[in-house]
Design a protein that fits this description.
- The protein is built from 16 helices and 15 strands.
- By secondary structure, it is α/β, with parallel strands linked by helices.
- It has two domains: 247 residues, Rossmann fold; 145 residues, no CATH class.
- The strands form four sheets. Strands 6-7-8-3-9-10 form a six-stranded mixed β-sheet, with helices on both faces. The chain has a four-stranded antiparallel β-sheet with strand order 2-1-4-5, with helices on one face. A three-stranded antiparallel β-sheet has the order 13-15-14.
- Helix 3 crosses helix 4 and helix 11 packs antiparallel against helix 12.
- The longest helix is centred in the last third of the chain and has 17 residues.
- It is globular and about 75 Å long.
- Bound molecules: adenosine-5'-diphosphate and magnesium ion (MG).
- The site of adenosine-5'-diphosphate (ADP) has 13 residues, from helix 1 and helix 15.
Amino acid sequence: MALKTPTEDLIVLRGVRKSYQQPNGQQIVILENINLELRPGEIVALLGPSGSGKSTLMRIIAGLIPASQGEVIYHNHPLVGLNPGVAIVFQSFALYPWLTVLENVELGLKAKGEPPDPRRQKALRMIDIIGLDGFENAYPKELSGGMRQRVGFARALAVEPELLCMDEPFSALDVLTAENLRFELLDLWLERRIPTKAILIVTHGIEEAVILADRIIVLGRNPGRVRADLSVTLPHYRDRKHPSFQALVDQVYTIITNPDLETIEAAAPVSPQQPKPEPKYQSLPAVRIGSIAGLLELLEDRQEKDLYRLAQELQLEVDDILPIVEAAKLMDFVELAQGDISLTPVGLQFIAGSIDDRKQLVRSQLLANIRLVQQIHRLLQAKNNQRIPEELVLDILESHFSPQEAERQLKTAIDWGRYAEIYSYDEPSGQIFLEQAVSVEPLIVS
Ligand code: ADP
Ligand code: MG
């Protein structure tokens, strides 16, 4: 339930696109055609797997980086430069170690040109509200992680932002500290003790989103785009065990685990000047074959087919299990339906097989389904010496991914292909080659 919903939007995004130019001149698209409104009175969670552009989108809203196309409208005017209505809390706290708690909290106010006296008053008041009393003169290194993040909150809130933006603010904290801070923040918000009109929280935790948010915006990856915009009407404080809570978590889980599901809410029409989205290049989750095998073994033994409850049972975070599930799905070892995961006939065959059978299966699944492995294999076959430098593959990948992601994609494809003995890799020279190519000429014994 939102606090109050006056009609005027706080911030509106229209057709926002973000791309980066690669060193080789190629554009990689990080965010595509993002349209959304942030309204006063609501906590909005921006939820998505890592790399889906959540932080980038938040930075665009805050005016820290510009959109490549489209606009951010703040109080009916296109935003240029920093957004004066936004303050940010970072995952890493981002405190100045040489400044005291009070001085750190005063920073934002100072930057806004607030004179020393009221500045100190406001900072002290926020320190009080946020539970940092008695630590005004401490330095960050004297504080626990939870207390440091309180400083992060106090500094952001002291400037009385209209929109409080938080980028995974609890994920560097231990579980209990995180839960405590989450609820304290919720208290402050529900009791209207903090002077902010809306909160945007970036998270990869489904439960965190469902606990806090009035609206959950699910971002998809490659390129980042809005896949769902869900209202959460459960009253605060929400009970994780309540069937409605679990149902909503399941719903979000289903969306996230089905990258192919269409966007739940119709997106605004693509503006004419917007280039057509390029067809997606298949993106490989960075997981080892061993983890995929582990997941399949586990599925064989479990009654529990609900992916979310399975993750809970294994005490795994979404971000840990999803890439493994995604990889298993790419290889057609599992299928997903309504948040339930099950082994396919090929998956069952894998489980039943010997080590050699498994290698064979992975080999045929990779060659049938994984585009990068296919491409490398074809390149190798086309070469007389059946060797290619990894740079060649990186060049191809860098037209679709950032250099860092391209490296990761390559590493994964090498790892998988090596396991299946499709090709081999020589680390020192950075060459990929077909096994036969290295086999030494038979020794002629005379
Ligand atoms: P999230 O916060 O959802 O994990 P990010 O917004 O941090 O995602 O990043 C989304 C994608 O954009 C990633 O693939 C990342 O490598 C890429 N990216 C972010 N910043 C830059 C940049 N300055 N140049 C090139 N690529 C970038
Ligand atoms: Mg991020």
